[in-house]
Design goal:
about 325 residues; globular; mainly alpha; four-stranded mixed sheet
Length: about 325
Amino acid sequence: MASARDSSHQSDIGKMKTEADGSFKRAASSFRNWIEKGTEFAPEKDRYHLFVSYSCPWATRTLITRKLKGLEEIIPVSAVSPHMGEHGWPFANVDPFPGADVDPLYNSSHVKDLYFRADPNYGGRFTVPVLWDKKKHTIVNNESSEIIRMFNTAFNDLIPAEKAAIDIYPEAHRKEIDGINEWVYDTVNNGVYKSGFATSQEAYEGAVRPLFSSLDRLEKMLKGKDYLVGDILTEADIRLFVTIIRFDPVYVGHFKCNIRDIRNGYPAIHTWMRKLYWNNSAFKDTTNFEHIKVHYYWSQTKVNPTRIVAVGPEPDIKPLDA
């Protein structure tokens, strides 16, 4: 169900506009409904479907949390191709990239078709993740920070007790988690994009220097620690991990975040990242370095007009004993 009107300004990243000063401003997510008992979006098995890209850090947050909570049988998932072109994220029937899926619900060509099915007049960008309601045929939510909190608690009655007991946003640590999330999002998660998409020297340096100041801060916080908050795995770790795992493969070169890399410049962050990756399948199994590198270098033609995909670094992630 594609719209006949021109939506290329919503789907084509090559037409993305920056601010007058050359800085990048991320638009807010549009669909913000909540899965909760007693509401129109009640927690039910196989009612919801998650659409993601393995290359997208925001979408990967939801994949990690879905696996941590044991929701694989509750919420099926479909991944798009990393080749985000003029029509946005394509499904495998349009671009059969290894690891990409077809849309099992409507056989859509692109993620934008789902947005227009949910709202024919939709005017925002066609982002992932998309949490879809198969009963109402609409998007429940496309804001990853809210989706992971829904996954954390909404389905606890439908999963084994040991999975329900996992809590990535524990009451006792919420204030600290929220505080870390705020500055990490602004300067690190989004900071790499503000650096990479800047179109003026001033805007670039205004983003890249706070980014590395925050990495310096995180390095001190993680020295001798496995987790950011309370010596337990929380959403603060998940939200940071998806940026750090992409840092050396794409952000250092592609986004000019090259004051230091993680593997040589931040030993505590590097150890923290590798422990999560190698010791927890929720992190390792949801990380696809091929999708990550191909997407950034191929899709973002304003940054890399040749679409040449960088080979390094080798290896994508070092073993724990390196």
